[in-house]
Amino acid sequence: MRVGHGFDAHRFGHGSHVTIGGVRIAHDKGLEAHSDGDVLIHAICDALLGAAALGDIGRHFPDSDPQYRGIDSRLLLRQVRDALAERDLRVVNLDCTLVAQAPRMGPHIGAMCTNLAQDIGVAVEAVNVKATTTERMGYIGRSEGIAAHAVVLLGQV
Fold first, then answer.
1. Are 23 and 41 in contact (CB under 8 A)?
2. Distance separating alpha carbons of residues 111 and 22, to the nearest angstrom
3. pLDDT band at 100 (very low <50, low <70, confident <90, very high)
4. Given phi > 0 = left and psi -120 to 50 = alpha, else beta, which region is 48?
5. Taking the complete model, does pTM exceed 0.90, yes or no?
6. Residues in CB range of 122: below 8 A, 6 or more apart
7. Which of 1, 24, 70, 105: CA 20 to 30 A from 42?
């Protein structure tokens, strides 16, 4: 068994939506990022790569590489899944926490779990996503950005 932890944060910028867990959510701001800014999937990629001792998302998908400009993070997650499969590793379960003052994540969590389960090749029951606020404290509480934590357990196939 191998455990990995991932964290990501992006600041708000111009836009009309955010993409979290592969779900487009209407919002009065977007997220600044080289890719689509999906903090949840970025944290998950880091957790998966860390558990497999394969470095981090920046090593595999550098923001200096133009091919990743605006890319759908679900494509990155599938590439990470494939890298794990090549090493005979599989996801046992995934637990994630979104940290955001806004937008409200609750109504979208089911769709996020479905997307993530599809992309990493597990049953939806092996994926958990939670959301919390910081009670208006810090950069998240001031609605300056969104963060995500992910913890994953990997096992041998």
1. no
2. 8
3. very high
4. alpha
5. yes
6. 90, 91, 93, 94
7. 1
In this structure, what token pair is assigned to residue 82? 């494939």
Yes or no: domain 2-156 corresponds to CATH 3.30.40.10: no
Determine how many CB atoms are found less than 10 A away from the CB of residue 88.
9
DSSP for 50-77 reads: HHTT---HHHHS-TT-GGGTT--HHHHH
Where are the chain's structural domains?
2-156
Helix crossing, 109-120 with 39-51: angle to 10°? 40
The backbone torsions φ and ψ at residue 55, rounded to the nearest 5 degrees and listed phi first, read: 85, -140
pLDDT over 90, % of the chain: 99
Q: How far is it, in rounded angstroms, from Cα 48 to Cα 64?
A: 22
Instruction: Give residue-wise pLDDT tens across range 134-155.
Output: 999 999 999 999 999 999 999 9
